[in-house]
Design brief:
- The chain is of the alpha/beta class.
- 38% of the residues lie in helices and 9% in strands.
- A seven-stranded mixed sheet has the order 1-2-6-7-5-4-3.
- It has one domain (6-364).
- The longest helix has 17 residues, at 204-220.
- The radius of gyration is 20 Å and the shape is globular.
């Protein structure tokens, strides 16, 4: 009998939960479950560029440039070891390496297509979901070519279901014991490709975007901290072209930044989180806000984000257990990077959200402000 060692999810209010119920032959099964409460859904007709304040070259290209040091003589620049690799970075569609991209569940899901590292399988014709395939390709390109996340070396199975009945039946068949009361479920077993299951409803594409971020990050990186995992997923769940301006968290974050005693949320507190059940709506909002700041404020904050994600690459995590990664995470690596490269980052965070509405209006009117 299969057992579940970790359940991860978001329910009403963006809360989370984690339960431990045992192991089987030393294997740990990780279930990542999300129920999205955002009101933004829909599709796009094609793949678009990123929002205002993120012009190409991308973060990957910006990362090639010199990052200022803290002024200590003889101190090694943390980016030197990566420069040669970055010279070959591109925004081309993810390659396929030598991984097996054949469908895994043809008996239950007869329709399939391979899209980058994602094998999309369904029990309804995929052309009935307008824009979905473009969304999947766009998201992989954004994560790899824009943020510098390494290409996944394993397949990600995306399973789509026409109704709740077939969705539940599939989960009970292949993952008994997994929760069936959410519209999306991500299962990742050590040494096996991740399986993302989404049932068809009015928010299916939004659910796919959000959970695909989790699936891809955890397939390409190791020991991804909760706050950046959820911050990026919340950022990318919004349709391309709207990510910087239409997230439902934005209004509250902007309001907080314009208060008389405005200060950024505690990054140290977020970096100390080690359990999903510690994530409430406040933590999701603050994680999203820091992600928004890092992506949109300046090339310097974009480079810090690139450095941070590179610290989670498999080659940088060799020999580091999950427990050790949590301990290291409590040392606040993002905070240290910001203190080094953007010393006044707290003031810049407040400045960023205080002026974001003006930049948003300029963007919507086809103008830019620098």
């Amino acid at each position: 009998m299969k057992t579940m060692s970790e359940t991860r999810g978001k329910g009403e209010g963006n809360g989370g939960e984690k339960t431990n119920v045992g192991k089987r032959r030393g294997w740990r099964r990780r279930f990542v479950v999300a129920v999205l409460a955002s009101c933004f859904g829909g599709t796009v007709s094609g793949v678009s560029a990123f929002d205002f304040k993120i012009p190409l070259p991308t973060i990957v290209d910006a990362f090639k440039k010199d990052v200022p040091t803290n002024g200590a003589d003889g101190e090694a620049n943390e980016t030197d070891a990566y420069n040669a690799e970055n010279d070959a970075a591109s925004t081309a569609p993810p390659s396929t390496f030598a991984i097996d991209l054949s469908p895994s569940f043809t008996k239950f899901l007869p329709y399939s297509v391979a899209l980058g590292k994602v094998v999309c399988e369904s029990n309804f014709p995929l052309d009935e979901t307008a824009g979905l395939q473009a969304e999947i390709v766009c998201l992989q390109n954004d994560l790899v070519g824009y943020l510098g996340v390494p290409e996944s070396t394993e397949k990600i199975s995306l399973c789509l279901f026409r109704d709740r009945t077939s969705y539940i039946a599939f989960i009970c068949e292949f993952f008994p014991g997994a929760p069936t009361n959410r519209p999306a479920l991500y299962v990742k077993e050590p040494g096996k490709p991740g399986v993302l299951m989404v049932r068809r409803d009015e928010k299916m594409i939004l659910n796919v975007r959000h959970e695909m971020v989790h699936a891809y990050l955890n397939a390409a990186l190791r020991n991804v901290p909760i706050w950046i995992d959820e911050g990026l997923a919340k950022y990318f769940e919004t349709p391309p072209g709207e990510r910087g301006f239409c997230n439902p968290f934005l209004e509250k974050v902007e309001s907080d930044a314009t208060s008389f005693f405005a200060s950024p949320p505690s990054l140290s507190r977020l970096e100390k989180l080690s359990r999903v059940d510690q994530m409430r709506i406040r933590e999701y909002r603050e994680s999203w806000a820091w992600t928004h700041f890092l992506i949109h404020y300046s090339p310097e904050t974009q480079r810090v984000l690139a450095l941070y994600l590179r610290s989670l690459r498999p080659e940088a995590q060799v020999g580091i257990s999950t427990e050790e990664a949590i301990r290291l995470q409590k040392d606040a690596p993002m905070k240290r990077l910001l203190e080094r490269y953007v010393p006044d980052y707290k003031a810049k965070y407040v400045e960023h959200f205080r002026g974001w509405t003006e930049r948003r209006d300029a963007y919507e009117n086809g103008r830019t402000t620098e």
